[in-house]
Amino acid sequence: MLTVFIRVVVLYAFSVLAMRLMGKRQVGQLQPYELVLALMVAEIAAAPMENMGTPLLYGLVPILGLLVLHGICTALAFKSMRVRRLLFGIPGVVIRDGRMDIAQMQRMGYTVTDLMEELRGQGYADISQIQTAILETKGRLSAFPKTIHAPLTAEDMHMEKKETGMPHLLVMDGRVQEKHLQESGHNEAWLEGQLKKMGVQKMRDVLLASLNGENILYVQQKKNEMPHIMPTGGDA
To answer: For the chain, where are the E strands, in sequence order?
Structure first.
């Protein structure tokens, strides 16, 4: 029984490592050749788990070979546009100038039902609002509305808006994120002082604390209370 457990742990760890080395992608973001690789890794890892007579190396070596093959394909895709098109495919315009391209949709096996579902998922219930829609190589639809239906921006309203950048996550699950705290230009003593102003006495009670580019501190406690939102004024 211990041997079975050890084999499962080794194969699981090696499979996770192989998928991790492929990069940070969700299943829906995998390119076709990456999805095939993921399925093959799962199938190869299953064989030594099910059959104790199969040597462990019969699972590890093929997974390693697939990982090497993935690296070669990725390197070739970076260097050759032809290989990139072969492995990734090319995006297809399914709505052009406000009209569905039926021929393109048929070539890509993309139905009107698929199109409407994706548009609704992006907040467009009326297809007449769409000027252009592109089916990306990963299967995701990129929809661009007609100018009259596009949301207003600060530029449209001739407003000046300062760039704020990414918020700094100062505390996660009761633990201070030292790197983010330093990048925000503050220290732990400053953070504790800000938390006390909000009535938070202990750092371990904080589920999440973040500071945005406008120096507004957001704090959510683990007690499921309403979050605290407070301007800090940028004081150090």
So the answer is: 92-96, 99-100, 130-135, 141-145, 168-172, 175-176, 206-211, 216-221, 228-231
